[in-house]
């Protein structure tokens, strides 16, 4: 159970080489790491939080030494986690009496740039450790309260007659007429939305993040190959169809200041019963390690039959689909790159030539071996 969940959560913010290096320091398999700010009593540290099978570890920024003797905090010593209601970054660990004496108080405050993902990993590991220790299931003790006096940064307001919709760590603008569609598992947050007035539907696909090496092995290193798979699936059950558009498309908004590279592809298909607009996006070089990629898809389907007064024009539908695609952005603020880790991976030649060019252009980092590789 833990292994399956771990595969779903890991790739986006973890790197197997870095996790292996951390495991050599902690003598425990690592699941996730992130640079955070930790405050306990009068002490504060900027360090890495590393989630293992049975404990949370706190390592110095150079990943070579512990912050203090209590750097290993077992999940059994965490009674509750409280997330701040005022911000998206602060949370509090409430520790029990079995904690190490190096922690001055029973309250450990943590500031994370990607709190939701960190809590998701922490919940999986905490529950798995609880089942391993006690042989029964318990829900991760997470609650919400006001912790800090900071205020949430104001969001970009949606367009008129539109709203912000969050799904699977991403958000986008959607017209008010579209409503959540339940499925057999849950009633909302399914990624499917329906406009009851004209029967138009929107489906959002968020694929699991993959490393650049995995994309090459799966023969999906370019978004055009993903588009070919989608096109085949969309027309698999259609006897008659014609393709109006099948080409690259540039994403036009960056509402959260995301430093990742975005690539797009647009497919428009007409069938006897519906018009299908499929917009594919690839978010590449995702920080903080900049070696992973994630594919997303926006699929709008509008039936051809129905009341002509209620069915909007094709141009209106296309603009609506473009707005959803262009406004699609990470729900959390973009993480800053871990320049020291990226530099180490660059020196170890862990990127391909295209990735080297992107890192050189955006992060101003280059491998120290380049001067030795130049011809004399």
Second rung of CATH, namely the architecture of the largest domain: 3-Layer(aba) Sandwich
Q: What is the count of structural domains?
A: 3
Radius of gyration: 23 Å
Class by SSE composition: alpha+beta
With helices defined by DSSP (H or I, 4 residues minimum), what is the helix count?
9
- List segments where confidence is low: pLDDT < 50 over at least 5 consecutive residues: 1-12
Number of distinct beta strands? 19
How would you explain this protein's 3D organization?
The longest helix is centred in the N-terminal third of the chain and has 20 residues, at 115-134. By secondary structure, this protein is an alpha+beta fold. It has helices at 2-10, 16-26, 115-134, 212-217, 223-234, 314-327, 339-347, 353-362, 370-373; strands at residues 30-40, 43-52, 55-59, 72-74, 78-84, 90-95, 107-111, 142-145, 162-167, 170-175, 179-180, 192-194, 201-206, 210-211, 242-248, 261-270, 274-284, 292-303, 329-330. Mean pLDDT is 87; it is low at 1-12. It is built from 9 helices and 19 strands. β2 (43-52) and β3 (55-59) form a beta hairpin. It is globular, with a radius of gyration of 23 Å. It has 3 domains: 2-145, PH-domain like, CATH 2.30.29; 162-330, Protein Transport Mog1p, Chain A (3-Layer(aba) Sandwich); 339-373, no CATH class.
């Amino acid at each position: 159970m833990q292994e399956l969940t771990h595969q779903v959560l890991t790739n986006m913010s973890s790197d197997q080489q870095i996790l292996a290096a951390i495991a050599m320091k902690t003598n425990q398999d690592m699941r996730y790491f992130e640079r955070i700010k930790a405050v306990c009593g009068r002490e504060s540290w900027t360090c890495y939080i590393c989630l293992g099978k049975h404990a949370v570890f706190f390592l110095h920024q150079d990943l070579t030494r512990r912050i203090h003797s209590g750097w290993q905090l077992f999940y059994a010593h965490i009674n509750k986690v409280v997330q701040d209601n005022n911000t998206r970054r602060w949370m509090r660990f409430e520790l029990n009496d079995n904690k190490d004496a190096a922690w001055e108080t029973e309250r450990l405050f943590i500031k994370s740039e990607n709190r939701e993902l960190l809590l998701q990993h922490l919940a999986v590991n905490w529950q798995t450790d609880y089942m391993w220790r006690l042989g029964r299931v318990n829900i991760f003790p997470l609650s919400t309260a006001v912790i800090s006096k900071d205020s949430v940064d104001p969001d970009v307001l949606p367009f008129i007659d539109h709203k912000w919709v969050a799904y699977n760590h991403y958000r986008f603008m959607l017209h008010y007429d579209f409503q959540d569609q339940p499925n057999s598992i849950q009633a909302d947050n399914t990624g499917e939305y329906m406009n009851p007035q004209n029967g138009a539907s929107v489906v959002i696909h968020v694929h699991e993040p993959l490393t650049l090496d995995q994309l090459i092995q799966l023969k999906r290193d370019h978004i055009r190959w993903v588009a070919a798979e989608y096109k085949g699936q969309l027309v698999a059950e259609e006897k008659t169809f014609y393709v109006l558009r099948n080409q690259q498309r540039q994403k036009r908004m960056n509402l959260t200041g995301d430093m990742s590279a975005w690539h797009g592809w647009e497919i428009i298909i007409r069938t006897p019963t519906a018009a299908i607009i499929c917009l594919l996006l690839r978010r590449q070089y995702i920080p903080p390690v900049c070696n992973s990629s994630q594919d997303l898809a926006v699929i709008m389907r509008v039936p051809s039959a129905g009341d002509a007064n209620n069915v909007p024009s094709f141009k209106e539908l296309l603009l609506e689909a473009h707005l959803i695609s262009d406004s699609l952005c990470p729900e959390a603020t973009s993480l800053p790159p871990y320049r020291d880790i990226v530099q180490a991976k660059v020196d170890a030649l862990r990127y391909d030539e295209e990735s080297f060019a992107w890192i050189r252009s955006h992060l101003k980092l280059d491998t120290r071996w380049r001067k030795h590789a130049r011809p004399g």
